[in-house]
From TrEMBL:
The chain crosses the membrane at residues 7-28, 48-68, 80-99. InterPro entries: TBL, TBL_C, TBL_N. It is a single-pass membrane protein. Residues 89-141 form the Trichome birefringence-like N-terminal domain. It comes from the Eukaryota. The keyword Endoplasmic reticulum does not apply. This is Trichome birefringence-like N-terminal domain-containing protein. The keyword Membrane applies. PANTHER family: PROTEIN PMR5, PROTEIN TRICHOME BIREFRINGENCE-LIKE 9-RELATED.
Length: 426
């Protein structure tokens, strides 16, 4: 193949030269060859023909060289991956973390919107190496996030993250990443609310929203009781219509019990349940969401994503085997480096299996932003006790109060958005 390409290039370059040289020879007057003297008119005729010959020769040389350079440019500037990683040889979500001094992409102090719960540097985290890691897929390279490029590609469009606080984590990350790249003085607008909050980059007509709904399906209040309606998504879904890019997530709230449980009863098929198998409930809720997506979302109009289940790091036995360093505490507190290698020794969230099964049955499936494995390797990237949501007493007792569920900003969710950017545009 390579030899054929070389021969083709040589022929494309030399044939025009041969042709133009032949023309030059034929244009020469024969009396110039046979006689040492020739008339003034012959001289003028020869001069014209010779200049014409040089022009043709130069033209074919330039044309051939330009063609060769164009071919070489196309060969050397192919994009490393296509838009859907599962349709190419690029395994976006399998790889390892590498230390990179050019990270992070922004400083938390310069971002206009980070919850105190995620702002680890502001609330006293003493180390910074966790900010310096870049995700490297096993068999490809991914583009570095470019906030200005993102805005120009998305000009006049809307993006919405829908789900729980992990979706909020990613939403704020994207706003920080874009804000770090926009020109000084760019006009923005922040509209905060519940369930919908929106940040607008007015000069580009781009809005980035977060719609809070931890279960995706609806919750109604009846006689002071919270009813989780596993078969109904009507109220929430009205806010999602007409959005250009939708990214969903759910999973964590389905397993909460006690004070963290977000409902009093579940409604399934018109019957109320005080409790049921949580994975069964998750599946029923996801299938309600999936039916709505299949019936209402036109993927030629709306780009559709679903964020994989974000792992937690509350059990050090998940990472204290193999090459990992054992922790002296019972949570992620004190962890400062990622897991090494390309295999996670712990267990992955059961919710991920349910999610993949439901999406597999859809007629109009989303692109799964499968961040579970790469996030599981980042035991170092949680807020731990470095959060404005904790009191000084709570911070003094990290074994019971460390946040090993959410993620610091700047930090891991920036990688989620780099992969989101890759899947969206490349």
């Amino acid at each position: 193949m390579v030899h054929a390409l070389i021969v083709s290039n040589i022929l494309s370059f030399t044939f025009p030269l041969f042709f133009s040289s032949l023309c030059c020879f034929q244009l020469l007057p024969m009396n110039l060859i046979s006689s040492p003297k020739f008339s003034s008119s012959s001289t003028k005729s020869f001069s014209f023909r010779f200049l014409l010959c040089l022009f043709l020769l130069n033209f074919f040389c330039v044309l051939s060289f330009a063609s060769l350079r164009s071919h070489q440019y196309q060969q050397n500037h192919k994009k490393p991956i296509m838009i859907l990683a599962n349709l190419t040889s690029c395994s976006l979500f399998m790889g390892s973390w590498v230390y990179d001094e050019t990270y992070p992409l922004y400083q938390s102090s310069s971002c206009p919107i980070i919850d105190s719960q995620f702002n680890c540097q502001m609330y006293g985290r003493p180390d910074t190496d966790y900010l310096k890691y870049r995700w490297k897929p096993t068999n490809c390279e991914i583009p570095r996030f470019n906030g200005l490029d993102f805005l120009l590609r998305m000009r006049g469009k809307t993006i919405m993250y829908v789900g729980d606080s992990l979706g909020r984590n990613q939403w704020q990350s994207l706003i920080c990443m874009i804000s770090a790249a926009v020109p000084r003085g760019a006009q923005t607008q922040y509209i905060t609310g519940d369930p919908l909050s929106t940040y607008k980059f007015l000069d580009y007509g781009v809005s980035v929203s977060f719609y809070r709904t931890p279960y995706l399906v609806d919750i109604d209040s009846v006689l002071g009781k919270r009813i989780l309606k596993l078969d109904d998504i009507t109220k929430n879904s009205n806010a999602w219509r007409g959005v250009d890019v939708l990214s969903f997530n759910t999973g964590h709230w389905w397993t909460h019990k006690g004070a963290l449980q977000g409902w009093d009863y579940m409604d399934l098929g018109g019957k109320l349940y005080q409790d049921m198998d949580r994975l069964v409930a998750l599946e029923r809720g996801l299938r309600t969401w999936a039916r709505w997506i299949d019936a209402n979302i036109d993927k030629s109009r709306t780009k559709l994503f679903f964020q994989g289940i974000s792992p937690t790091h509350y059990n050090p036995s998940d990472w204290t085997t193999g090459t990992s360093t054992a922790s002296s505490t019972r949570t992620c507190y004190g962890e400062t480096v990622p897991m090494i290698g390309t295999a996670y020794p712990g267990t992955f969230p059961d919710q991920m299996g349910v999610l993949k099964e439901v999406i597999r049955d859809m007629n109009n499936p989303p692109f799964i932003l499968d961040i579970t494995f790469l996030s599981a390797m980042r035991k170092d990237a949680h807020p731990s006790i470095y959060s404005g949501a904790l009191t000084s007493e709570q911070k003094a007792n990290p074994d019971h109060s460390a946040d090993c569920s959410h993620w610091c900003l700047a930090g891991l969710p920036d990688t989620w958005n780099q992969l989101f950017y890759t899947a969206l545009f490349f």
